[in-house]
What we know:
By secondary structure, the protein is of the alpha/beta class. It has one domain: Glycosidases (TIM Barrel). It is built from 16 helices and 13 strands. The radius of gyration is 21 Å and the shape is globular.
Amino acid sequence: MSTTSVSGDADLVAGLPARFRWGVATSAYQIEGAVNVDGRTPSIWDTYCRVPGAIDNDDTGDIACDHYHRMPADVALIKDLGLDTYRFSVAWPRVQPRGKGPVNRAGLAFYDRLVDELLTQGIDPWVTLYHWDLPQELEDAGGWPVRDTAYRFADYAMLVFEALSDRVNTWTTLNEPWCSAMLGYAYGAHAPGRREYPAALAAVHHLLLAHGLATSRMREASPRKLDIGITLNVATAYPASDAQPDVDAARRADGMGRRIYLDPLVHGHYPADVVADLAVESVELPVEDGDLEIIAAPIDVLGVNYYFSQKFTGYAEDGSTADSSGLPVSRTLPLNKPRTAMDWEIVPEGFTDLLVGISREYPGLPMVVTENGSAFDDVPDSTGFVADADRTAYFTSHLSAVAEAINQGADIRGYLAWSLMDNFEWAYGYAKRFGIVRVDYETQTRTPKQSALYLKNLAEQHRNR
C-alpha cells in the first residue's frame, strides 16, 4: 500500500488535537512467552490453558510471540511505524512470583530493559499493571472474589512503581475489570473459568478496591506529577424501541457494563438502579466502610477500550418480559451491521455516542482510546504481507468516530490500536488475528500489514500538519 494520503485522511487528522497520541497496545501473556523463564510462576491463564477444551486447538501462551526474547526488535518495529506511545502490561507472576513476597529482580529486569529501549527510540512507555494474569496461588486462595487479593495487588503495584516510576509517566492499574470479573467468574469463558455469579460481583468490587488502593499509594510515593488511571471496556447499549421493557433492558446492560465501574470511580458510589437490580437477584456488593472513598481516588486519565455496541430488548421471543426465574428479560438483537471475524458488529457511531456520553456524564475526565481494533481472516501473500483493507477501513471509521466525538466536546487525547501484532487471543488461541503486524508463529517473522502502513501515514500527517 502506498503511504501517500488517501481521500478523507487529511480531514480526519485535522479533527484531532495537536498533542494527540498515536500508538499500539499489547498484553504480557498474549505476546511474551517464556512462561518458565527467570523465576516466573504460573498465572491463572497458564492453568486455564491446560483445561481440556478451554482454548481453541488447545493453544497456550507458552511461546506466543516470543516477545520476551525479541523485545528490542519489536520496539524497533514500533519506531519504524512512526508511533509515539506503547502500552504494555507487566506480568504479575514474573515480577512477584506466587503473588506475594519480595520482587523477583530477574523478572523485573525485563521491564526495566523494555522501558529503557522505548525511551531510547523516542517512544513513550505506558504501563498497565494488570492484564488478567493473576498469580495462580492467589486464585487458589480465592482469587478476586476474596478481599485480600486487592491488598496483594497494591503491594505488587508498588514493586513495579518503585522500579519504573522515574521513567514512566503514564500508569494504568487494571485492564478491563469487567472481563476479569464477569468472563472469569460469572460466565467461565476466561481464566479461571468459574461460573459463580455472586463471586463475580464480589470480584467487581475488589478489583475496583485494588485500583483505588494502588492509585493512592502510587500517588503518595511519587515526587512528581504522573498520570494514573484505569482502562475499561465499554460500549453503547441501545434500546430496541421506546417500549419500557426495551429501555429497561438497555439501562441494565449499561449499568452492568459501564456505570457499575465509572460511577464509583468518579462519583464515589454505585448506581442506585444497579444496586436495586442486584438485590432482586439476591446479590449484594461486599462494600465495607471507607471502600468507596478509596475507589474514588482521583484519576488523571480514563482508558477506553471499544470494539462494538449492541441493541437490547426486554422481550423474549414469545413476547414475555420475565424469564422462568421471574427476572426481567434482557437479550441482544442484531444491529444489522457488518461483522468482524469475532462475530462482533462494526458500530463506529456507537463509539462516538459512547465517548460523548462519558464526557457529559463524567465531565473533566480526559480519555485515551487504549484499545480499538478488529480481527479478520487475514490472507498473506507470498512475502507474508497482508492487504487488510477491511481492518484499514475499520480504523478509518473508528478514528473518524473519535474525531466526531472530539468535535462534540469530548476530551480525547490519543488512540492506541489493538494490537501491535497478532498474538494469543485468549480462549480463541491463535485462531483470531488482531495485529497490524502479521506474526508467522512457526518462524516468528513479523510483517507489517496494510493497516500498519495506514496508521503510520496518519501519524506522520498529524505530526506534519
